[in-house]
Amino acid sequence: MNIFDYYLEKIKLLLNDLNKEGQIILPSSLDGINAEIPPEKFDCDISTNVAMVLSKINNKPPFDLAENLSKKIKSLDEYIDNVSIAKPGFINIKLKPSFWTNFINNIIKIPDTFGVNEKEDKNKYLVEFVSANPTGPLHVGHCRGAILGDVISNLLSFNKHVVTKEYYVNDYGNQIINFTKSVYARIREIKFNEPFPIDNEDLYPGDYLVDFANNIISANNELDFENYDKISIELTKLSITEALNLIKKNLKSLGIEHDNFVSEKSLVEAKEVEKVIDYLTENNHVYKGKIKAPKGENDQNWIEREQLLFKSTDFGDDKDRALQKSDGSWTYFASDVAYHKNKLDRKYDYLINILGADHAGYIKRITSSVDALSNSKNKLICKVSQLVKLIKDNKPFKMSKRKGDYITVDDLISEVGKDATRFIMLNRSSDVELDFDFDNVKEKSKENPLYYVQYCYARISSVYRHINIDLSVNLKISLSDFEYTSDEIKIFKKISEWPKCIDAASKKLEPHRIPVYLYELASLFHSYWNLGKDKPEKRFISEDKKISDDKLVFLKAISNVIRSGMNILGVETPEKM
RNA sequence: GCGCUUGUAGCUCAACUGGAUAGAGCGCCUGACUUCGGAUCAGGAGGUUCUGGGUUCGACUCCUAGCAGGCGCGCCA
């Protein structure tokens, strides 16, 4: 029930009628015409720019056109109270209170689906996110992208798309060899008392490797731990499993669960890389050539080498990209192309990749490869999540991988909790660097938007609790012709914007719009709540411990939207705080 | 040097794919508590939307040239 779309449709039908009667000239497309939320200072509910858009083609000033149209819009239906015209040529529609009573009666019947875009085509999406190397626990740097991917998936599912959440496991290549050697060094440390070679920069120094080593030793008595060469294949497998289990545990504590884990190694072993390169070669996207040194680079150290390149410049990239290393093995990019071919073969309508800011430079080449493989554009959408700046004691907190002093997801969750972490990280556009202030996030006051929104829900729950009605159960009252005043209608108006919010968030893949919206809704509610101080008639429960049906409905509608929104964010709505 | 990205109130950020007099929170200044749970509310001050051009009825938003910060730039994934 998107009232803006509803009236926009009516207006477009009206325009078509007027066009047939020869009263108005229309452009080939009516896409530029919209129905929007008017600024607060205007006393109206929906505003449209029709007159301004049609002004030129009709060769009439927008104001004249608006005057003419506004009379016709007024008679569109019985719920329109009045139609006014504002300065450049906006047409503003004010709805009658009876409209809002109807509206609220309707949405109360669909608590879980209010806001869903019914008109949109339903698609199959694959969302790939996190995909951190399976060499250790997740740290704060992974967190934002993980939450972003999870909530984008929730958002798409909410809009009735089919979504698969996938994790690409980079279990192939040099770093995995180094990782396995590190685990092995820890094993030797434990079993043979050999000191861990801490100066070896290729090895991973983290303490968690000691746990991995202990787990592997105790579960695999039969292995000959003295001979690395003999056990290296098995040890690699075991080490990756350890790391993945830890990562899955970390994700779970963030409230995240993937549907699929796809192994890079298994793609390589199934010769999918060779197959995709054959395909690209047949289609003339691959050649043997040399890459030139970048300009600022000291080109003394630059050695030009002939290697297998993908013509990503054909698709808008800055340079062509290497597929094969000089030792004949595949580059990361090559197996990633194979992975994306694999995704395409699974017949998704859209692929979404969530990347960290440090991988933004990778976007052009991977979208180029998908363009080449699918012969179409915009199949792959890459979304970048910017850095998180940690702030502790009002100072930026820098992490160093070398020292091993980085903050893990475990640290984060045990200190500030899942909900606060999720809400704060989602509260800003993912394009913008985020200040994550530890002390602030822990604070339980209005400085923390999470509690501000949750408190709104808790207040509503408390009213329901007082009158012994379960808030989570559908209302059993016969809806009728309630009379609401402008105080309540103000909140209904906000509720009517919810479908618009969902729509924008889901189309632009910008989940931050949801916490921002929920905060605004909560704010209106808190204001309303305080009206009860001066005006007894604005209190929910009367002196004889009763509540009227219109107020029950009013509260129910608000709580439904809050719960729905918090569900998408993956954040709890406690009934008591 | 090139690419991507950001630049909005003192600070942290919004702004509904180009709309109206650019909105919140924090901080600052007033005010509301024997609380239908104050983890709240009411009011005030605070702006040349980084700069210069352009596109049009209309620009924080699009184009262009700069400035400033961040990230990245051969076979590391």
Description:
The chain has helices at residues 3-20, 50-58, 62-74, 97-107, 140-158, 174-192, 208-219, 228-253, 264-269, 272-282, 332-345, 363-374, 409-416, 418-426, 438-442, 449-466, 486-496, 498-507, 513-534, 549-569, and strands spanning 35-36, 46-48, 80-86, 90-95, 124-128, 162-169, 260-263, 286-289, 307-310, 321-322, 350-356, 380-385, 388-392, 395-396, 434-437. The strands form four sheets. A five-stranded parallel sheet has the order 7-6-5-11-12, with helices on both faces. Strands 1-2-4-3 form a four-stranded antiparallel sheet. It has a three-stranded antiparallel sheet with strand order 8-9-10. It folds into four domains: 3-95, Arginyl tRNA synthetase N-terminal domain (Gyrase A, domain 2), CATH 3.30.1360; 129-263 and 386-442, 3-Layer(aba) Sandwich (Rossmann fold), CATH 3.40.50.620; 270-377, no CATH class; 449-569, Isoleucyl-tRNA Synthetase, Domain 1. The mean pLDDT is 92. The chain starts with a helix and ends in an 8-residue tail after the last helix. By secondary structure, it is of the alpha/beta class.
Report strand %: 5-15%
Distance between the termini: 32 Å
| Tally of helical segments | 20
CATH topology of the largest domain: Rossmann fold
Number of domains: 4
Helix content range: 40-55%
* E-strand count: 15
Give descriptors for this structure.
RNA-binding; 577 residues; Gyrase A, domain 2; alpha/beta; single chain; Rossmann fold
